[in-house]
Specification:
Blueprint: H1 2-45, H2 52-56, E1 63-65, E2 71-74, H3 91-101, H4 113-129, H5 140-148, H6 156-172, H7 175-185, H8 195-203, H9 212-221, H10 233-237, H11 240-256, H12 261-272, H13 290-308, H14 312-321, E3 325-327, H15 332-343, H16 351-354, E4 355-358, E5 361-364
Parallel strand pairs: 1-3
Antiparallel strand pairs: 1-2, 4-5
């Protein structure tokens, strides 16, 4: 009888200890959850405002026009971007980027829950094994926000803000608008920002004319533009890096049903036969009318500072990347005609007679200039 009572007491004591452990664990979970919610809420509250206009108004080269509103000069820049609408982007190009960057783009609402859980699993595994860094699970919507409103710095705070803003953005823009903005935003090596300038930079043609393997190449290089840059010495010596990457994109397109088996096989055969050919564009960094255009830019900057109280930095960025259309007084036809007369020295200078030695350089004298007055 005494033994039975002792056993009952031990059972009650064990249950009491177990209950306390469970309550403690529950309290820790609730406290941790509340803390995480609080931290998450503060991160979301500090997120930048979702300004759709700022997101869609991308940096674009400013252009100067003559007095007949004909093209004269591009303002020199360190980056190039030409914004185009989605109907100027081939379906293969759109599908190539979706396949390799965000295969469930058309189905999710800003974040891909399946990829998020996969990324969390890998991050936890990396922490246990001592590896650094956070694994990405960004959708195209999130990448667009990172490239425009947020910083590229990898942090928990930025990822939380990115996910929150992605859900909000998908309420305001449809999928085609998001994809269009994204494909106009991404950096694709060299000076190219967006698929239009990338197409010009690598194939010397507009994006609408890209074929399947060219589209797959551009989508693949987005992972690491410097590694897959075709004009680098390492790529020219060993093109297998970017060719294999292009094949991975084509494989993903096949898996998603964006292309059928026949088109896939033909594309792989084309790659193996050297049909992916690059052509450098004839980019002229020098201004066509340098003496005139630099003076125009100087005066435009001065006027912007005076009228709108912009700082030097703000003015410089606006003139360089603001997509301004600057209309000038240049009579380009008259200028070209006058320059042609001046350049045709055989009509008024005997080069043999007037050439003199200045060190090791032959200098034609006299020099020629012209002034045209109304």
């Amino acid at each position: 009888m005494v033994q039975h009572k002792n056993k009952t007491k031990k059972d009650k004591k064990s249950k009491h200890i177990l209950r306390n452990i469970l309550l403690t664990f529950l309290f820790i979970c609730l406290f941790s959850g509340a803390t995480l919610l609080g931290i998450g809420y503060s991160m979301i509250k500090s997120a930048p405002e979702l300004n759709i206009n700022e997101l869609l108004l991308l940096n674009e080269v400013s252009v100067m026009y003559d007095n007949k509103e004909s093209y004269m000069d591009n303002v020199p820049t360190d980056e190039k971007r030409t914004v185009i609408t989605i109907d100027k982007m081939p379906i293969d190009l759109q599908n190539a980027f979706i396949s390799i960057e965000d295969e469930r783009f058309r189905q999710h609402h800003g974040i891909d829950v399946k990829r998020v859980f996969g990324a969390v699993y890998i991050d936890v595994k990396n922490k246990i094994t001592g590896k650094s860094g956070l694994h990405g699970a960004s959708t195209i919507t999130q990448q667009l926000l990172k490239n425009t409103l947020l910083t590229p710095k990898v942090s928990v705070k930025r990822k939380v803000q990115e996910m929150y803003l992605a859900i909000e953005l998908e309420k305001k823009l449809n999928k085609d608008q998001i994809l269009e903005a994204y494909l106009n935003t991404i950096f694709l090596g060299g000076k190219a920002n967006g698929v239009e300038e990338a197409s010009n930079q690598y194939f010397n043609k507009p994006a609408i004319e890209l074929n399947l393997i060219e589209s797959a190449y551009l989508a693949g290089m987005n992972q690491s533009p410097s590694v897959y840059y075709p004009f680098s010495p390492s790529s020219q010596k060993d093109p297998s890096k970017y060719l294999n990457r292009t094949k991975i994109v084509l494989q993903k397109m096949l898996e998603m049903g964006s292309i059928d088996e026949e088109r896939y096989n033909t594309a792989i055969e084309d790659l193996d036969n050297g049909s992916l050919v690059f052509e450098k564009p004839n980019y002229e960094e020098k201004l066509n009318y340098e003496w005139f255009s630099w003076e125009v830019l100087k005066r435009v900057k001065s006027d912007l500072k005076r009228q709108y109280n912009y700082t030097d930095k703000e003015v410089s960025r606006l003139v360089t990347y603001g997509g301004l259309k600057i209309y000038t007084t240049m009579d380009k036809d008259l200028q070209d005609y006058s320059q042609d007369i001046i350049n045709n020295t055989s009509k008024y200078i005997n080069i043999q007679e007037y050439t003199i030695k200045s060190g090791d350089i032959d200098v034609v004298q006299p020099q020629v200039g012209a002034a045209i007055m109304d």
